[in-house]
Amino acid sequence: MSLPPEKASELKQIIHNHLIKMDIHGKIREVLAETVRDDQGPSHRALSEADFLHALQRRGIIDDVMKDLHFTQDAPADTESGFHPKTATHFIDKDVTQLKKTNIDPSRRYLYLQVLGGKAFLEHLQEPEPLPGQVCSTFTLYLHFRNQRFRSKPVPCACEPDLKEGFLLEIHRDGIGEGSKMADATTMLAMCDPVHLVLIKTDTSSETTLVSSYFLDWRTVLNVPSGRTCFAVELMGVGSESKLPAGVLTISLELYPPLTETLNADIISTQQSLERQRTAEKERLFLVYAKQWWREFLEIRPSHQSKMVKIFAQDENGVNRPVCSYVRVLRAGRLLESPRQAARFVSLLAHEKAPVVGGGGKQEQWCTLMAFLCRGKGDCEDHATLLCSLLLGFGLDAYVCVGTKAKGTPHTWVLTRGTDGSITFWESLTSHRYLHQAIDPDAPPLAPQPKPSSPYRTVGCVFNHQTFLANCQPSDAVELCVFDFQNQSRWKAMSEEALKSVCAPGSTTSLPPLPPLCAPSLDAAAASNQMELEMRYLVSEHRKDLELVTVWDDHLSYLLSSALSAYELERCTGVSCGNEEFQDAVRRAVPDGHTFKGFPIHFLHRNARRAFATCLKSPFCDEIVCCRGDHVRLAVRVRVFVYPENACAVWLMFACKYRSVL
Asked: Is 634 left (phi over 0), alpha (psi -120 to 50) or beta?
């Protein structure tokens, strides 16, 4: 295979740099001196090239060079997005870099965004330089632009992190039938979609933290004659630190192909100013309307002042937005097959309350969908708005409920209304569903009443992407609540036109764009095998410490698969099946006079040591792992079920069989 001259010279340079880094010349001199000394004997003969190569090979120099030298391979372009998530727990990317081949359409316009490095991340000023092979905290940068998502390789956290990546973003026209036409400068000026940058920190235990969420207006590149501009972007913190700088990224923007005619800088700044004014005016008018609506709501009953009616919520950047803007109609394409599978996916994203410094009440922070997905965890509001968006995408009449659960704890969940008037509650943190039947307070004392099945106590308001309704019934108790939203004596609605003016997609430039879900890149079978091997090793070592011999039964381990599959299917659909076959198979595998014990458990992570430590806290699991007796055979099976965004449901089952003494 012949290489073009520029590629050949680039390859030579890579090899040259690698050899210098290894101090190959010093090693060659040492081997040469040693070989010459050995050959200066009575039978002295001239040192040939073959002898010298043999000496290098004997000392392992050649093997060391080839072991450490990696070449980039082209990956098949089989995914629809440029998003390749993978676990980042090591500062060296151990995998060979997978570059996706992209066919550049000469009739399309592209924006090439390069991150040229970071600086002034002062929180990591004292962080020591990581040693080769040392596990350390990492930064990963995520991008979203006009339905395209990308991520950088993880780099070690430092005051000046080595974030150097390039992202090719397609700029397509929005008009019907114009998607294949090249966007000119005027068309691009009217595109107010920003590039959403999200910086995530992953610590040594794989815990993620949202560092910054930044919206980049890329249109400054439209007035540069060369088609390329470079500038520094100051990233701000999130939540209570949203006014404090987190660090600086140097960013370069370049248009392909370059513009033949650029725009004047005044035209661009005027367009941006007009957009800001239009957005500010819409938000001002909505605020005036919301204040008037709230006064009318309080006039119905003074006690409404204490109801959980949430009209605005702060995002991670401290920006107040109407709650309806956090919900959109979100279709998952082929990634999720049903509403119940969507609920299962959302429940697999970890629950974590917004961090707060010091004591006091709960920190108020709703997240944009992009920040929530990149971080992989969030509060109950993030889960509820995502689940509501997905259920709307599946064609259901879905709403987010704001209220309280046991002990008056504030909580949000999802409600769907059937065409027959039935009301179903969906708990976004667990994917549990509850059929709601209201108690009739006017019914005779002896009349049978439905028992409350859900954990929710009060509901103050419900909303989705185009509706906001406040509960104005005499009691806000869920068990007494009637969800007939057309009845104005029970529910006070906001004007749909007013909501549309600030919450509809494209209504204001301050609304964050809606990112698509990304297909999983994790190999479920490989992840299952890896974790199972680690678990076997941990069990064997644990038993060795107890001076117990470990004998594995591979056949019994395999049989556990059907049980784990049935457990996940039940979580997904609510229907239990396959248990009879599993029990029959176990009876056949366990001889007469033997006892079988099994212990299944579920995790949201793939850390084998953490999982094993948790399992041993259960006396049932400890009894199996530390089993003593005659003919003890152990089994373990791990099944990793992968969902969009690499969300994982990890099922683990320990089992043992042994001869009964009694």
From this structure: beta
Q: What is the 3-class SS of 268-328, one letter each residue? A: HHHHHHHHHHHHHHHHHHHHHHHHHHHHHHHHHCHHHHHCCCCCEEECCCCCEEEHHHHCC
C-beta separation of 381 from 463 below 8 A: no
Question: What's the whole-number mean pLDDT along residues 161-183?
Answer: 81
Q: Do 500 and 521 form a contact (C-beta atoms < 8 A)? A: no
> Considering only CA atoms, which of 439, 464, 215, 522 is closest in space to residue 322?
464
271/42 Cα distance (integer angstroms): 89
C-beta of residue 406 within 8 angstroms of C-beta of residue 319:
no
Q: How confident is the model at residue 92 (pLDDT cuts 50, 70, 90)?
A: very low
Question: Are the beta carbons of 636 and 539 closer than 8 angstroms?
Answer: yes
Question: Is the separation of the CB atoms in 87 and 206 below 8 Å?
Answer: yes
Cβ(136)–Cβ(170) below 8 Å: no
pLDDT at 42 over 60: no
| CA gap 390, 335 in Å, rounded | 11
Q: Sorting pLDDT into bands at 50, 70 and 90, what band is 660?
A: confident
Amino acid at 593: G
Region 328-345: mean pLDDT is 95
**Which of 530, 522, 523, 520 is closest to 638 using CA atoms?**
530
pLDDT band at 194 (very low <50, low <70, confident <90, very high): very high
Q: Determine if the peptide bond prior to 257 is cis (ω within 30°).
A: yes
Across the range 97-111, mean pLDDT stands at: 71
Instruction: Enter the tokens of residue 76.
Output: 């098949």
Bridge partners for 199 per DSSP: 141, 212
With a CB cutoff of 8 Å and minimum separation 6, the contacts of 356 are: 240, 362, 363
Neighbours of 416 (CB within 10 A): 19
**Contact predicate 658/633, CB 8 Å:** yes
Phi, psi of 247 (to 5 degrees): 165, 180
CB contact at 8 A, 417 and 482: no
| 284 compared with 504, residue with greater pLDDT | 284
Alpha helices in 325-431 (DSSP H): 339-348, 369-375, 380-393
Residue with tokens 């869920």: 478
Name the nearest CA neighbour of 353 among 366, 341, 340, 371.
366
Cβ neighbours around 70 below 10 Å, total: 13
Dihedral sign from CA coordinates of 124, 127, 129, 134: negative
DSSP state for residue 135 in the 8-state scheme: -
